[in-house]
TrEMBL record:
<dbReference type="InterPro" id="IPR003593">
    <property type="entry name" value="AAA+_ATPase"/>
</dbReference>
<dbReference type="Pfam" id="PF00005">
    <property type="entry name" value="ABC_tran"/>
</dbReference>
<dbReference type="InterPro" id="IPR027417">
    <property type="entry name" value="P-loop_NTPase"/>
</dbReference>
<keyword id="KW-0547">Nucleotide-binding</keyword>
<dbReference type="InterPro" id="IPR003439">
    <property type="entry name" value="ABC_transporter-like_ATP-bd"/>
</dbReference>
<keyword id="KW-0813">Transport</keyword>
<dbReference type="InterPro" id="IPR017871">
    <property type="entry name" value="ABC_transporter-like_CS"/>
</dbReference>
<dbReference type="GO" id="GO:0005524">
    <property type="term" value="F:ATP binding"/>
</dbReference>
<feature type="domain" description="ABC transporter">
    <location>
        <begin position="7"/>
        <end position="248"/>
    </location>
</feature>
<dbReference type="InterPro" id="IPR005670">
    <property type="entry name" value="PstB-like"/>
</dbReference>
<keyword id="KW-0067">ATP-binding</keyword>
<protein>
    <submittedName>
        <fullName>Phosphate ABC transporter ATP-binding protein</fullName>
    </submittedName>
</protein>
Length: 253
C-alpha cells in the first residue's frame, strides 16, 4: 500500500444471512480527500461504509470475507480492537444523534472515556472540536445547554465535533445531510471540504450534485458491486462504464 492510501479493501464480500450484499470490492481510498459513494438504493453503499469501521460487527447475520486495511493493517485481524478502530475511523449518521446531554458533555464524552480528566484539557478539546466542526461561534455562550435544543444542522455539526474530539483519521458519513434543509446542507458541505485538509472523509450520498460539489473521488456501486471508482470529474463527465453513465444521467435509479 502506498502512502497516499489510508483505507483499502481487497476482495471484500459481505453477506447478511443468504443475501450477498457486497461482491468482491477492491478499492483504495486516498488520504486527506473526500470520496463519495453513489448508486441506487440497496446497492450496498452503507454496508461498504460500515465495513470500514467494523460497524457491521453489530449485525448478527453479517459475515465477511476479504480484507479491509487501515494504514496497511487489517482491521478484521484477530488482534484488532473494534473500539480502537472506531476511534480512528469515526462515523456520522443520516439522522443527527446527539446524546441527551449538554453540548459540552457531548463533545467531552469520548475524551473522558479515554481518560482525559483535567478540566482545562477537556475545555481545550471541546473548543477545538467545536471550532473544527464550524459550530463554536454559534454555541460558545451556551455550552451547558441541552444539545437537543440545537437545530438539526447544528446537531449534525455537533456529531462531527464529537467524532473529532477523539482525534480520528477518517470520518465516514452516511447521508449526513438527508435530514437537513438546503442552508444547513450547504454548511455541512463547506465543512466536509474543509475537514479534508486534515482528515479523510468518505461520504455516502443519494445526491449526485452533492457528490460533485464535495468530493475529489467517487465510487459508483450497483447491486453489491463497485462498478467504477475514479476522480469525481471523470465519473461525471466521462465515465468508463455504461452503467455509471446511465445512473448519472438519470436513466435509472
Ligand atoms: N441489517 C441488515 N440485514 C439484512 N439485510 C440488510 C441489512 N442491511 C442492509 N441489508 C441489505 O443489504 C443490501 C445493501 O443495503 P445498504 O443499506 O448497504 O444499501 P445502500 O446502497 O446504502 O441503500 P440506501 O441508499 O437505500 O441506503 C440491501 O439489499 C439491503 O436490504
Amino acid at each position: 500500500m502506498d502512502n497516499s492510501t489510508i483505507l483499502e479493501t481487497k476482495d471484500l464480500n459481505l453477506w447478511y444471512g443468504q443475501k450477498h450484499a457486497l461482491i468482491d470490492i477492491t478499492v483504495r481510498i486516498p488520504k486527506k480527500t473526500v470520496t463519495a459513494l453513489i448508486g441506487p438504493s440497496g446497492c450496498g453503499k452503507s454496508t461498504l461504509l460500515r465495513c470500514c469501521n467494523r460497524m457491521n460487527d453489530l449485525i448478527d447475520s453479517s459475515r465477511i470475507t476479504g480484507n479491509v486495511l487501515f494504514n496497511g493493517e487489517d482491521i478484521y485481524d484477530g488482534h484488532a480492537d473494534a473500539y480502537a478502530v472506531r476511534e480512528k475511523i469515526g462515523m456520522v449518521f443520516q439522522k443527527p444523534n446527539p446524546f441527551p446531554k449538554s453540548i459540552y458533555e457531548n463533545v467531552a464524552y469520548g475524551p473522558r472515556i479515554h481518560g482525559v480528566r483535567e478540566k482545562g484539557a477537556l475545555d481545550r478539546i471541546v473548543e477545538e472540536s467545536l471550532k473544527g466542526a464550524a459550530l463554536w461561534d454559534e454555541v460558545k455562550d451556551r455550552l451547558h445547554e441541552p444539545a437537543l435544543a440545537l437545530s438539526g444542522g447544528q446537531q449534525q455539526r455537533l456529531c462531527i465535533a464529537r467524532s473529532l474530539a477523539v482525534e480520528p483519521e477518517v470520518i465516514l458519513m452516511d447521508e449526513p445531510c438527508s435530514a437537513l434543509d438546503p442552508i444547513a446542507t450547504g454548511k455541512i458541505e463547506d465543512l466536509i471540504i474543509r475537514l479534508a485538509r486534515n482528515y479523510t472523509v468518505v461520504i455516502v450520498t443519494h445526491n449526485m450534485q452533492q457528490a460533485a460539489r464535495v468530493s475529489e473521488y467517487t465510487g459508483f456501486m450497483y447491486m453489491g458491486e463497485l462498478i467504477e471508482f475514479d476522480e469525481t470529474s471523470r465519473i461525471f463527465e466521462d465515465p468508463g462504464e455504461e452503467l455509471t453513465e446511465n445512473y448519472i444521467t438519470g436513466r435509472f435509479g
